[in-house]
Here is the input.
Amino acid sequence: MTATPVLVPLPIVAPDARPRVTLTVWLADLTYTQQAISAETMPQAVAGIATYAATRVALDHPVRIFKYPEVLAAALEQDGPPDVIGFSHYIWNSQLSLAFADLIKERFPRTTVVFGGPHYPLRLPEQTVFWRERLAGRVDFYVDGEGEAAFADLLIALSRTSRDDVRGSLPGVHHLDSDGTLYAPPPRPRIHDLSDVPSPYTLGLMDEFFDGKLVPTVQTNRGCPFKCTFCQEGTAYFQKVAKKNTEHIRSELHYIGRRMKPLVEAGTARNELLITDSNFGMYPEDHETCRVIAECQQLYGWPRVVNVTTGKNQRDRVLSAVAQVPGAISLSGAVQSLDPGVLRDIARTNIDAAKLMEIALAAADAGTGTYSEVILALPGDSKARHLGTLRQLVDAGFNRLNMFQLTLLPGSEMCTDAYRREHGLVTKWRVMPRCYGSYTVLGEELRAAEVDEVCVTVPDMAYEDYRECRVMNLLLASLYNDGLFAVLLAVQRSSQISPMTWLERARTMAHGPALAAVLKEFSAETDEQLWEERADLLSYATGNIDQYIEGHLGNNLLYTYRTRILSEALDDTADLAARACLAVLREAGVGVGGGSLIEALVREAAEYHRLTLADVFRTEPPEVLRQPARFDLDALLAAGRHRDGIRDPRHFRLTEGKVREFVLTAEQRRTLSTYMGQFGTTPWGVGRLLTKVRLADIVRHVRMTPGPGTAPAPAGTEAPST
Here is the structure.
């Protein structure tokens, strides 16, 4: 097992003491670009490797940073090869980086190719297989663990001696010898103070990436105190948390804000910030970071949305930090599962699940959005346990659940051979959405596609159960998430009916033809995307790249089919939502038949929600839609939020006839135009849009106007029986 170093300070070398390095150095954090930009983050991490190297060595040539494959291809053609090229190695760009590395080693064997990143096994036997099957002949060195210090060590060594003499001599720098021996010394000690890595933003290395396509990305702390076995940061190496100082963060965020301001004002960039911390808000320093973000919002109108994973413990501290930027950060309760046996198997027992659940109620009271994350087919999982977790989360009041398949990451404990055997994990391979492309490099066509390994069966969850859970995940995303049918949820909750009871009823009821067709295709494509053998899938994917780029293959099914449900089958979906709501009310003893007032309320509410969603994914939707109004649905929702009694619908009857008008504001149109310009109007493009934009920000606004007289009363105006 690889030794685990402790965090120690790494002194910055005085400028006059730095060794001189004459090598030309390029660093690439590649992303696919042809269907859409798959990893739209600015290459802040590899740029930080460059800025740190400059504190340790005197570089004769500035390090060049690359994000787009087309730009790297042009540089290889026009400027010739560098002496050293480093590639980030993640699950979303592994094959793309390897394709470039393979061609570079073939054409320019003297160029040293270095890889680094979390897409690398933990144990020596698995590392050896990984080298022999994937890296051999393409990669000279792999940096295991943090990259900044180890890469600087490697540059110094390469400037003094040959590649052959470097092998095995540097901590964390791995190499496979020609005889098949893997030299794998333990990682370099971790950086103690992240402020030792000069900001690539304030030094100007990131200026070219403010192009309106990429999202500014920062890291304020690195490491995670938790031990989740499915996560690369769950290993002992990352247990201690290293932080940046406040002034470093402040200068970085203000620099980004000044660069983003004109782009946001022109509507040519998404108004976002990504913070890559694992537990944001859990530390006292995060409160100050949020205060700086609030300053940037005031000065630059950026960022409107901050994408970050909030802390898993320290609830009050997290809430206090997020309150500094109201509405910008959604609070996460990433439970993954709430079953005690599953949590034990994945080493999450040091996370207080009850506190995570409390976040939902506290955030709802503060008007802050909340989401939770759930992973399907974890060790120890079953259909009943998975659905039970979903039930607890919707009952707690999380307004969005992000549901994932279990992906085995090479750098995680779960991916080791021993763990797989112990927990009976059965896996298949699939192509990762948007991670495929074809590029012309040095006169050759490079085709690449990324595949990931997903768990589809564990001892207590057969494959058929897995498929049924996937259908439920889709219905929950389409009917529950983001309050798509919030009035119906409020009505059910007033009768102590769980939203999961409604969703399970909706799954088993007859579906309209459009919805039935979409659900059938979803189930079929779920099966078709999964392959037994990695090599077979890679061969098929690279042979059919055009089909993937055109969107016929390889889409994120939950996002794509959610979009299809809300566009192609919206009428059927609203009808199903109403019928299922009436059915569970009836089963709970609420009188809903014979044209009762409660039935009228449910039908009107379903139509109300249908109209808020109608045509919002069209580039030129109708300007105004209308609906006669009998009930004050806004008052009903407000009563539900404050947990007031709403069981008697007579309290929400309008005494005068009104008409609702459903409109898209100019700001919504700008938001839709910006995102659809980047992602396109296809179902898979809109599905991706919905991962970046909160649906509440783009659904139609509702305004009330006078109607043609008093609203007609439906038959049966008595209070509902219970």
About this structure: The mean pLDDT is 90. The radius of gyration is 27 Å. The longest strand covers residues 426-441. The longest helix spans residues 246-266.
